Amino acid sequence: MESQREKEKEKDSEREEDTESENDEREEERECQKLRDRQKEKRERAKERREKRRQQISLLRTIPYSDHQRWWSADTIALVTGANRGIGFEIAHQLAMHGLTVILTSRDVAVGEESAKVLQEGGLNVLFHQLDIVDPSSIKVFTEWLQQNGGGVDILVNNAGVNFNHGSDNHFECAEQVIHTNYFGTKNIIQAMIPLMRPSSSGARIVNVSSRLGRINGRQNRIGDLTLRRQLEDVDSLSEELIDRTVTSFLEQVKDGSWTSGGWPQTYTDYSMSKLAVNTYTRLMAKMLSDRPEGQKIYINCYCPGWVKTAMTGWAGHTSPEEGADTAVWLALLPDQVVTGKFFAERREVSF
C-alpha cells in the first residue's frame, strides 16, 4: 500500500515537472515571438523612413539649381571612373545633364566607347578615354591625354571598384584584387589628379564612392580591435602608412587563414575593409588639402550610394542607379562648397 502511494507521488511529481517544462517552453516561445515582432516592426519603420527619405530626395532632384547657385558651366570638366555602367554611368549622365563636360572612363575600351556614345546621342557633352586605375601605364597615358586636351579637371568622382561577394557569401579568393582596386586604385587616381585639378574660386571637388560597410564604428560590422579603431578615428595622428599597414595586415591574415581571429568585419569582409580604407583616406586627404590657398582649394568627401540594383550587387539591391548616383552629383555640385572630409548617404552626413 505504501509502495503504491509512493509510485503515485512520483507520477504526480513527474506530471508537475512536465507541466512546468511545457509552461517554460511556452513562455520562451512567447518571448521569442515578441522579439521577432519587435525586429519586424523595427525593419518596417526603417523601411518607412528609407522610403520617406527617397521621396524627399526625388522631390529635391526636380528643383533646378538657380543661376547664382550654378558655379559650373559647359567648360567645367568632370572625370568619372568606372563609368561604363551602373552607378558610374548614371553619375556621368546626371552631371552631363547639368551641363558639364564629362570624361567617362572604363577599363574596357569597347564597352566604354559604347556607353559614351549612348550619352552623346542624347546631346550630352561626354568624352571617353580608357583608364585602368590599378595600371600605372594606363594612368600615365590618361594624364598625358588630359593635359593635352583641356589641361585638367574640376571634379573627380572615384567610382571604379569591384566586389565578388553576393548574398550571404564571404569568400576571399579575390581579396587582394578588391583591396588593390577599391583602395589603392582610388588612391592612385587621387594622387595623379590632384596636380591637374584646375584652380577656381569655387574649389575643385573629389567624391569617393564608398559604403557604410566601411564605417569604423558601425554597430554590426566594425573592426574588433579597439586600439586600431581609435588610431583610425584620430585624424590628427592618422597617416597613409597606418591605413596601408592595416589593409596589408588584413591581406596577410587572409593568406594564412588567421583573419577570423583578427577582429575584422564579418560581412563582405574584403569589400568592407577596402571601403573602410577609402573612408579613412578621404579624411586624411581632407586634412592634407585643407591648407591650400584660396583659389586652389580641393574639397574631398565620400558617400554611400546604398544597396543599388547593379551587376556588382547581383541585381539584388533595393535602390535604383539613378537614386544611388544622386548624392555623388549633389556633393560634386554643392554651391559655396565648404564641406570636406565628411561621409554622406542620401544627402545627409553620417558618422565614420
Spell out the blueprint of helices and strands:
Blueprint: H1 2-61, E1 77-80, H2 86-97, E2 101-106, H3 109-120, E3 126-130, H4 136-148, E4 155-158, H5 175-193, E5 204-209, H6 226-233, H7 240-256, H8 269-289, E6 298-304, H9 321-333, E7 343-345, E8 348-350
Parallel strand pairs: 1-2, 1-4, 2-3, 4-5, 5-6, 6-7
Antiparallel strand pairs: 7-8
Helix pairs in contact: 2-9, 4-5, 5-8, 7-8
Region (Disordered): 1-53
Family: Belongs to the short-chain dehydrogenases/reductases (SDR) family.
Biased composition (Basic and acidic residues): 1-14, 29-49
CATH class of the largest domain: Alpha Beta
Q: What's the total count of β strands?
A: 8
CATH topology-level name of the largest domain: Rossmann fold
Which sequence of strands runs across the widest sheet? 3-2-1-4-5-6-7-8
User: Helicity level, as a percent range?
Assistant: 40-55%
- Biggest β-sheet strands, sense, barrel: 8 strands, mixed
* Alpha-carbon Rg, integer: 26 Å
Family: Belongs to the short-chain dehydrogenases/reductases (SDR) family.
GO molecular function: oxidoreductase activity, acting on the CH-OH group of donors, NAD or NADP as acceptor
Protein name: Carbonyl reductase
Keywords: NADP, Oxidoreductase
